Amino acid sequence: MYNERVMKEFQNPQNVGEMADANAVGTVGNASCGDIMKIYMKIENNIIEDVSFQTFGCAAAIATSSVATSLIKGKTVEEALKITNAQVVDELGGLPAQKLHCSVLAEEAIKAAVNDYLTRYVAENK
């Protein structure tokens, strides 16, 4: 069902775990399949200095979380917002059609975390 790259990311995911000093957190879920994805970011001077995730879900959900966090680490907030689910799928070398929603969750979790940061940053600097 899954290609070698997806299995590699699932078995050895990068950037796993809760981040105590995160200043951005985004949580999204898919009620139909039960996947829940939480992305933590530490953003300094508009750069995502560190990023991690906690995901409850299938192999595809964990693999897309791993790849998505790797894609945005070291990027600006604006660059992170441009990451699409299609890029996540491409980075993984593809996903089965019934698992594409996992890549959408990854994109949505990034956007949710950035929105959390911008909301807090704007609120703190008014």
Describe the structure.
This protein is α+β, with helices and mostly antiparallel strands and 126 residues long. It has one domain (4-124): Sufe protein. Chain: A, CATH 3.90.1010. It has helices at 4-11, 59-72, 77-81, 85-92, 100-124, and strands spanning 24-29, 36-44, 47-56. Strand 2 (36-44) and strand 3 form a beta hairpin. The chain is elongated and about 50 Å long. The mean pLDDT is 94.
Topology (SSEs and partners):
Elements: H1 4-11, E1 24-29, E2 36-44, E3 47-56, H2 59-72, H3 77-81, H4 85-92, H5 100-124
Antiparallel strand pairs: 1-2, 2-3
Helix pairs in contact: 1-2, 2-4, 2-5, 4-5
Shape verdict: elongated
The largest pleated sheet is described as: 3 strands, antiparallel
Largest sheet: spatial strand order: 1-2-3
CATH arch. level architecture: Alpha-Beta Complex
Strand content: 15-25%
- Radius of gyration computed on alpha carbons: 14 Å
Give the overall pLDDT as a whole number: 94
CATH topology: Sufe protein. Chain: A
CATH classification, class level? Alpha Beta
- Uncertain regions spanning at least 5 consecutive residues: none
Q: Termini, distance in Å?
A: 50 Å
